[in-house]
Structure formats: structure tokens, C-alpha cells
Amino acid sequence: MRRCRGRIVLVAGGAGFLGSHLCDALLAEGARVICVDSFRTGRMQNLRHLEREPRFDLVEADIVEHLPPRLAGRPDMVFNLACAASPPHYQSDPEHTLLTCVIGTRNLLRLAEESGALFLQASTSEVYGDPEVHPQTESYWGNVNPTGPRACYDEGKRAAETLCFDYLRAGRVEARVARIFNTYGPRMRADDGRIVSNAITQALIGADITLHGDGSQTRSFCYVDDLIEGLLRLAVLDRRPPGAINLGNPAELTVLELVQRVVALTGSHSAIVRRPLPQDDPRRRRPDISRAADLLGWSPRVPLEAGLRATIAWFAQETLRVVASIRLPASDDRVPAAVQMMHPPEKLPARGGSG
Ligand code: NAD
User: Is 155 helix (H, G, I), strand (E, B) or coil?
Assistant: First the structure.
């Protein structure tokens, strides 16, 4: 399918984990892509393969500031994924996180209005806070602590949704809102403090795996390819959705079960160490995706084991790239056993190579 052929699509946050996959998918659909990113948490390496792509442009800008005037009137579609998503990152500058969600979203909505562009907001399951309703349906209004350390993100995303629906009601912008649940896959940052990237990195380097709380809290993990397909279907839907749409994988498991699967798949000998649960950490999380299934004909296809294998393979390559860049021989004892096992020495990239 070439659903976006010839369209000019602006992806704010396109250098990040999800945004860079979205840029790839849009280009594969035949779109021209303008990525706007401040590189606060995004990385150039996520976009390096697009350097010579004639249908791809990169604009370095912070969406909280005035957007470059050359963007005015250009896009047919605007996807707003710009916002740090992992708690350590968004909490490191909470004021900027809140402003990114509110002022940044308003700046992009105004750009969409001027350009007559469709607008898709990447919202989050965090708008449900620590939910009292399980699984979470879109009609649930949530249970968010408005003054806690997560509020800059949770309340910011709630306010961004409010702005989107105000612009929509006023007939100013065709705005759509996806509430994204935990998503994982290649290009996550090893240092982003989220459970999947933490557990995989720690397992691969043979470090203790950090488990917050007793591990009985639940999450539902969606593989990145499934999520991106859901976002695209929502963007090209020919009808106006009745409200926000949950996108996530309803297969729920405890965080301890996830860690155990990562340990088994990496063959790691890492120990699991417990740390206190962070404040306001949700106890349960599982999307009700009936609305996405009915409206978009969408449901996730990638089983957890397949998604984890692909993600682990990517992190193993990344670990090797770092090893290669510091010129350790691949068979060196300091190259973690789990990485050597997944990539036997004869298949390792040459030392000092780009890996
Ligand atoms: P990420 O941190 O990898 O990507 C965010 C991108 O936005 C980065 O490239 C960053 O540099 C950029 N950015 C941040 N603030 C900016 C600003 N003010 N101006 C311009 N660029 C800015 O995070 P991600 O996991 O890719 O998440 C992308 C979006 O999806 C976020 O809006 C997040 O809230 C949402 N989301 C993600 C998940 C998930 O599991 N990954 C879950 C729910 C919602």
C-alpha cells in the first residue's frame, strides 16, 4: 500500500525511537518527510541511513520556540511525537517537558491550521495515570497525580489532548489523538531507564538486572512495527474518529515475567536485584483496543518473543559497535558472554569498523 504517496509529512520528534521508525514507514509509503527535532533525546544515528534520501529533510528546531517560517504552508500532515518519553529523561527538565507538550503542541497545531494539514498527536497511556479501570478504555478519564514527579508528562499530555480537541471542535484542524501504550524495539536508548531497554542491556553486559518493586506490576508491550502501522492507519482513516484511540498490545504480563523472558532469550547469567518502586508508578496497564480494531481494523501482530528477539539482536549489535569503537578484541573477556554467544567471534565485525 502507498497510502501517503506524494504527501508532505512533518514528523516532530522524528529523530527519536518511534519517530525515526515513522519516518522510515512514511518514506516507504511514498511520502516526502520533514523531520523536526531538537535532539534532546533523539539521535542522529537513528536517521543516518536517510542522509542521501531525496525525499527526506531534517530541520533542527525546538517546537517550544517559534518554528522556522519556511515550514509554513508546507505539510499535508503533521505527526507530533516530540517529547521525551522515558521518566528519567522527561523528569530531568520537567518545565521543558510540560512546555513541549503544551506550547510545542500549540505551535504545531497552528502550523497545521495554516497549512490545512491533518494533525496526529502521539499521546500516551500515562493520561490514565495509575488506573482504577482495567483494562483501560478510551472513555476512562484517568487517575493522575497532578503534582507528582510524573505530572509534567502526564498532565502535559492531557493538556495537549485538550488543545487537539479544542482545535478540532472549532473546525480549525482535523486533529487525531493516539494513546500509545508501552512500545519497544530497535533504536530504544540503552540509557532511557525503561524496563525493556534496561533489562536487555543489563542482561547482555552481564550486569545485575534492576527490578523496581516486587515485579508484580503489569505492563503490555507493543512491538514498534505494530505501533507504527496503527499510527498510519489512524492518520489516513477517511472518517473522523469518535475521540482518542488506544494503540498498544493487550497481552499483559508482570514486569518480573518480562525480565525472566529477557534472561532466557539472552542466555544471561545476570542476577535480578530489587529497587524501590518509583513514586506514582502505575500498578497495572493494559489497553482495551476494541476501538482501534473496529475503526482501523488494527491489532498487533508481532508476538512478544519475536519482538524481544529482534530487539535483543539490535542491542547486541549496538554493544558490539561500542566494543569495536573502543578497540577491544571481540574475544576479549570484557566483551560480555551473552553478546559473544549471540554473535560468535567469527561473525563479529572487524575491530574499529563501523559495525
Ligand atoms: P524519544 O525520546 O525517543 O523521542 C522523542 C523525540 O522528540 C526525540 O527525538 C527528541 O529529541 C524530540 N524532542 C523532545 N522534545 C522536543 C522539543 N521540544 N522540540 C523538538 N523535538 C523534541 O521517545 P519515543 O519513545 O520515541 O516517544 C515518541 C512519542 O511517543 C512521545 O511523544 C511519547 O510521549 C509518545 N509515547 C511513546 C511511548 C513509548 O513506549 N515509546 C509510549 C507512549 C507515548
Answer: helix
**How would CATH label the architecture of 8-187+222-251+281-302?**
3-Layer(aba) Sandwich (3.40)
Q: How far is CA 176 from CA 3, 79, 173, 179, 261, in A?
A: 17, 10, 9, 10, 35
pLDDT in tens, 300-331: 999 999 999 999 999 999 887 776 676 666 56
Structure confidence by residue, pLDDT tens digits, 229-254: 999 999 999 999 999 999 999 999 99
Long-range contacts formed by 333-342: CB under 8 A, 24+ apart: 336/204, 336/205, 336/206, 337/206, 337/269, 338/203, 338/204, 338/205, 338/206, 338/266, 338/267, 338/268, 339/204, 339/205, 341/267, 342/204, 342/266, 342/267, 342/312, 342/313, 342/316
Q: Name residues contacting ligand 1 (CB within 6 A).
A: 12-13, 15-19, 37-42, 62-64, 81-85, 100, 104, 122, 124, 180, 182-183
167-190 pLDDT, tens digit per residue, is 999 999 999 999 999 999 999 999
Residue whose CA lies nearest to ligand 1 atom number 28: 81
- What the block records as the C-alpha cell of 187 is 533504536
Average pLDDT, the chain: 92
Residue 351 confidence (pLDDT): 32
- Which residue minimizes the CA distance to atom 32 of ligand 1? 81
